Amino acid sequence: MTTTEDLKQTTPPPLNAHDFLNIDASLSDEERLIRDTVRGFVRRDLLHRLPDAYDNAYLPDDFPRAAGELGLLGMHLQGYGCPGTSAVAYGLACLELEAGDSGLRSFVSVQGSLAMFAIWRYGSEEQKQTWLPAMAEGKAIGCFGLTEPDAGSDPSGMRTTARFEDGQWVLNGSKMWITNGSKAHVAVVWAKTPDGIRGFVVPRHTPGFSTRDIKHKMSLRASTTSELVFEDCRLPTSAALPQATTLRAPLSCLTEARYGIIWGAVGAARACYEAALDYSTTRTQFGRPIAGFQLTQRKLVEMLTEVNTSLMLALHLGRLKDAGQLHPQQVSFGKLHNVQSALDVARSARTILAANGITLEYPVMRHMANLESVLTYEGTGEIHTLIVGHAITGVAAFH
Length: 399
Hints:
Layout: H1 4-10, H2 29-46, H3 50-55, H4 63-69, E1 78-79, E2 82-83, H5 87-100, H6 102-122, H7 125-136, E3 142-145, E4 161-165, E5 168-179, E6 186-193, E7 196-203, E8 209-213, E9 225-236, H8 248-282, E10 284-285, E11 288-289, H9 294-322, H10 328-353, H11 364-376, H12 381-393
Parallel strand pairs: 3-6
Antiparallel strand pairs: 1-2, 4-5, 5-9, 6-7, 8-9, 10-11
């Protein structure tokens, strides 16, 4: 016989307009603690400053150290001062950072999943000891030099070269669209050598290495984006990453960064949905809140569906990554879906906010503009489509 106590135990929790599918229940206590800690940090210390940072095109100066103190830099790496958290915990941190602004998540992603990961995975013990502890604390900032003015989707077409001369490596060339470029204390740079593509650790003040910031951006404004220039930049033999000797090395770093984007896009989408939901319940037209109109409810439900679906996808891929079962092609699937979904949510949210949606008083237009960059960096939507297409057909549409 079913008792009252049995009924209490099987009664589902109340529906939540923000977590409609109760995905929170799938997280561990530690994962929820990390998520809530990062969420509190963003909302308490950063959210009120982000409109001005975006408007005036700067990353808050104190953010790198604060992120380091919180353990967000290289948080999924083991040793060398890195916390060694799970992939899911790292993803949740990316989600909460990008719910603030893509610039925050981009900084953490480039620092931890590109620059630090490259040194951690492919560097010498000396390189690891020299850079990783300081980078984990936010005392040293890194950047990742792969993309060039004429080599984006096809990094094998890079023109930056490294030749070995008189016992030194000599770099010549340039890199473009480099997050953290002019702020970086160290750059991980990829160049063609006679024996293939190699990676190099280039300290900021190395003669022949200079940077130029990219101005007049309309997207990712709360983030530093630069050009890296190498003019007979001479490096000791110890600057080469000993384990990085082919293009597979930088591509594996990109896979790490793309994984964080899968989660970050959910954060941007959630912020837009929540702004639209809140606005719709307080904005009155024709004598009642616009949330009471059928077309508005349809938009809100479609946004909710996208946010919750994208979060489930991110969590599933995170569990696969923690189990060592995640394929790069599945990461492409996740980035392709979640970024496009986030853009759809942002655009729909903007229509609910109407004219208010284009101001920095609300986060929607800021996220929408940022997502246009997220859509194309770390692999365009077209490239990820072809990666997944190759995986399911066995036929490569590009080489």
